[in-house]
Amino acid sequence: MRVLNVGCGEDTYGTDFIDIEPHRKEIVICDLNKRFPYKKNTFDELYCRAVFEHIRDPHSFLKECFRVTKKGGRIRIITDNALYIHFSLVGSPHLGGYWGAHKEDQHYSVYTLSHLKLHLESVGFVPFNDEYVYLCEWRELLKPKNFRVVLGGLFSLLLRVSPWWRSSYNYITIEGKK
Fold first, then answer.
1. How far apart are CA 32 and CA 55, in angstroms?
2. Do residues 114 and 166 lie in contact, with contact meaning Cβ atoms separated by under 8 Å?
3. Could you list the residue range(s) of the whole structural domain that residue 130 is in?
4. 117 neighbors 127 (Cβ within 8 angstroms)
5. What number of other Cβ atoms are within 10 A of residue 22's Cβ?
6. Region at 124 (left for phi over 0; alpha for psi -120 to 50; beta for the rest)
7. Cα-flanking dihedrals φ and ψ of residue 38, to 5°?
8. Which end of the chain is less packed: N or C, by CB atoms within 10 Å?
């Protein structure tokens, strides 16, 4: 089974890796806003974590993902939740600006679950297995300057028992089948 990790960064999930920066020797350097360097119907799975919000043209990006995915294959997207309340309360790069490594590394959009479903359907993927998730790098919580992250996480836990439960999760994960 071949798995393409799109915008992999330091992540090692998958068999093939593309990113705009060579974090390791096995990563193929690729502008994710352009054509991928693979033939049609190459991969069983595409995995995109914390990438979709950085894409300038999500429709063209997903068309390219569809092109390199085998029939019966799937795409898995994990992206920032536009409804996450912590982004608004504490201030966030999602509200403008970003501290990426270079000027092309920007947040262009954040999405709701319905946005993601519409984007997947528009290129031919059939959405399934979607959920709101809270992802956190626990080692970040241990740093003294991250009190706001800890406080935001506790606040998110409280929101989960309210009518605004969707705003308590910082990520959305969704899969689409070709």
1. 7
2. no
3. 3-177
4. yes
5. 11
6. left
7. -135, 155
8. N
Distance between CA atoms of residues 17 and 28, nearest Å:
6
For residues 167 and 70, the model is more confident at 70
In 3D space, the residue among 36, 32, 70 whose CA is nearest the CA of residue 49 turns out to be: 32
> In sequence order, what are the beta bridge partners of 178?
none
As for how many domains the chain has, the answer is 1
CA distance 66 to 125: 7
Token pair belonging to 157: 């836990």
Contact between 86 and 110 (Cβ < 8 Å): no
pTM: 0.86
Phi, psi for 6 (deg, rounded to 5):
-90, 120
In a 10 Å sphere around its CB, with 0-12 CB exposed, 13-18 middle and 19+ buried, how is residue 160 labelled?
A: middle
The length of the chain, given as a count of residues: 178
Plot region of 129 (φ>0 → left; ψ -120 to 50 → alpha; else → beta): left
Pairing mode, if any, of strands 27-29 and 126-133?
Answer: unpaired
Q: What is the pLDDT of residues 116-170, one digit of tens each?
A: 999 999 999 999 999 998 887 655 556 666 666 667 677 777 788 888 888 888 8
